[in-house]
Amino acid sequence: MNVRPRTALLTAATVAVAAAGVAFHELRDTVSLHLRLKAVVDALRTGRRDAVRDAVTADFDRRLLAALDDRLLADVARALEARPGAPAAEAAIGEPTVAGDVSTLLFTSPRGGLAFDFRRERGEWRLSDIRFAGLEARRDGPVALAVFAWARALGEGDLAGVRDASSAAFAREVWSKPGLEPCLQRPEARRASEAPRLEPRPVRLEGNAAALRLEDATRWLEFRCVREDGAWKVDDVTIAADGEAIGLRETLRVLLAFRKEDK
Amino acid sequence: VSRAAAVLAAAAALASAGCAPLAAQLSALGFAQSLGEADLEGVRAHSTARLNRELWDDVDAALVNRLRRHKGMGTPPESNVRLLGTTVDGPCAEIGLSVEVGGAAPMVLRVGMAYEDGWRVDDIVVNPQAERLSLRALGGCIVAAVRFSEGLQNRDFDALRRASSADLRTRVVEEVAALDWRWPDGPARAAPDVAQQGFTGGEDAACFSWRVGNDVFTYRLVREDGRWRMDDVDGPGGSLKLTIVAALAAWRVVDAVAKGDREALREAVTPGFHERAISKLPEEAWSLARAAFEAGGGGPMRGFGAGASWPAVRESERGIEIAVDFGPHRLEAVVAGRRVDEVRFDGVSVAEHAEIFALLLAYAQAAGRGDREALARLSTGALAAAWTGMHPEGMALVSRLLGARRPASLEPAAGGDFRLDGDAAVLTAGAFEARLERVDGRWRVAGATVPLPGGAMELAELLPLADPLLVLFAGVESRRVALLREVSTPALNAMVWNLVEDEMLDRAGVREATPAAPAAFTYAVRVDGNAAEIRVEADGRSGRVRLLRDGRWRLDDAEWEGTSLRRAAGAAVAGWRFGQALQRGDLAALRAEASTRLREDVIDKVSVENRKAAVGGADGIDLDGARLGRLDFPESGPATAEILLSRDRRIVFHFALEKGRYHADDVVLHAGPDSLSLRRALKVGVAFGGR
Q: What is the pTM of this model?
């Protein structure tokens, strides 16, 4: 019975990419439109970690860039390269508020507002955080990036990548089992770009556990992550609609148990 | 030289001297003296050839002493004997004597003498003016009776032949001797008590009677070839000769039946009786009769059975009529010559019994073959209609159930009772009662009352109720759903039978929900208008079958050990159908098996492409090795059926009751402690655009 893994994976992938879309497309648009951010954007555009590191505070670097692997960094650069230029007509960048060494620049677009926080450090204004709909890049970014890495690997049918991005238990119970490749390699699994747009909620952190929820009026997805050896890993995904929810890990466990045995 | 010879010589001398009277008197005196001394040689010497032949030849010392005790045969020494006179008429002479013993009235004796090379005693008549008791006849009769009695006691057939008349010898003694038959116990074995006898005798026939208790026995003798012989004994039941003749005739019938020898039976009965009764017995009666004889102790009976009364016998213009009572029953027979002409049991001719027996046998056989047409033909009224209405498959089961039983169990004699009154008869065995009636000269079964735990019931009412049940058993056993559809209500059909194919019956749990082995059950039937309930019980387990009448009785549900066939099988069937639709990738079937909610909320919302992919990809469920697990089906509302795939994998189907049958509302996959609701997963998937 392959349909249900496929459907579930499809859903999970969709959700993951949606999260990424929120985090990065909005970031890209905003960053590219603000003059003071140009340096950051330019640095990001180079895809060079040292250039980006130079544009952000040390804290931002430690918390976020460390979690951004080279592929992810290159993805961001490619995304920015694809849409260079001026801010969209309907977007507007407000006046920055400056208070001592701290400055905030508000950016509004039809999809909501972004706040860029800057801190003067080492003689320059350097990006210290990005806030969006209750998300804070510095705080929530590591979890979101872990989720994105997991979802991207899933979307690409990269089983090793999914295993790497999953908690040890999730990887052991599900992603190490034989029989998953066929469903991961189906073309539907790649149609992650058609993901529904869900609004992210602030990450809930509790010690070494975190939950990233994306939702709209009738549906929500919750990525539950755990910190293992200092890195966030996806431990389970809850997928819900119309008041009904399924747990991806349990679902996949059941489906694996019911998969046709290789004779 | 014996005294008798001396006396005779003296008498001869007197006679030749012309003193005939004196010579006769002397010879008579010699006779009396020899008899008084039990000197048989002397007695014979003084007797004529006729008297010797008729009496003394067969007398020995023991018997002569018995004879001497008889009145007139011996004169005690103290008697006062007076010569009344002597007349001589040629070779004959008569001596009149008066004998007085004690103070009793004198007895007159007339001694008849004949001149046979001397005067010899030919007879002595006692009281010639009154009873005219001939000692020759009396003595001859006593000798014959004693010899006959001794022959009986010693089973000495030669002695019996000698002591019997030609008629008794040929009709009884020779027959009995040939058969080595045991003589009946009875008066024939009682030795005649000569001392108590009352004797009447003529020239060629005589009889004497004596009393034993209240019974009077009369020995009848006849004189043949100059000798007295036993011809019969009349006891309280009548003539012993006729009794034995009749008993022998009856025995020959019994023996022929026991041996299965039809030719012998034909010989043992009159042609008329053969035509009236024997020829009407069905072929099977032979084997049944033989089995009955074998069961009753083996082999033909010898002589009269125990527990029966002494037969009463009489002669009529039809022949010998004999009647024997045993227990409350009476067996009567008429014997013409030596053949049985009629047998009546409790007043009913065996010809009638033969017809009724043939009917019952034919009935049992028709039931045994499941031949409803024959059963209807052999029945009348509502019972005939009930048989006609039986389903052939139900009849086939009846046949199989009865096949193991002997039709003999329907025999009236099997602990039952039988009453016949004109054209109606009632047969009872315990609480079972069969009513027969004669229609146009033929016996038919008009009805039967069958005892059931819940109360007795008419067979004509029971059959239409039992029919659907029998067909249910047959259909489940032979896995033919078409049969089940035929006898079920639309509701049961809609919920179960219409959804199931023959090969799915076993997997649908129908057997588990159906009481099997119907023979072992007791049934209690309760009818309430157009609804009926049959309770079945066996080995402490119970169930009930509900039937509804709609023109005819139909099966609505069956419950076994609390499990409703309709709901259990309904749930199981719905589960298999949905599972198979999934396995086949049959989208249309999947939609049809789904509840409205599952169909509208989930199935129809998935894109056609994905639906096809979904059902097409459901190849992980291998139902071939699966079996039915727990079923849960409340009186109303949703039900669940569990299909077990392996030790820790199962599929639980949740059903909604829609349009009178179960539809899958959800399918939950269970693997160990984990579960996955497909409806929920698909619904969530649809919500997230996984169309």
A: 0.56
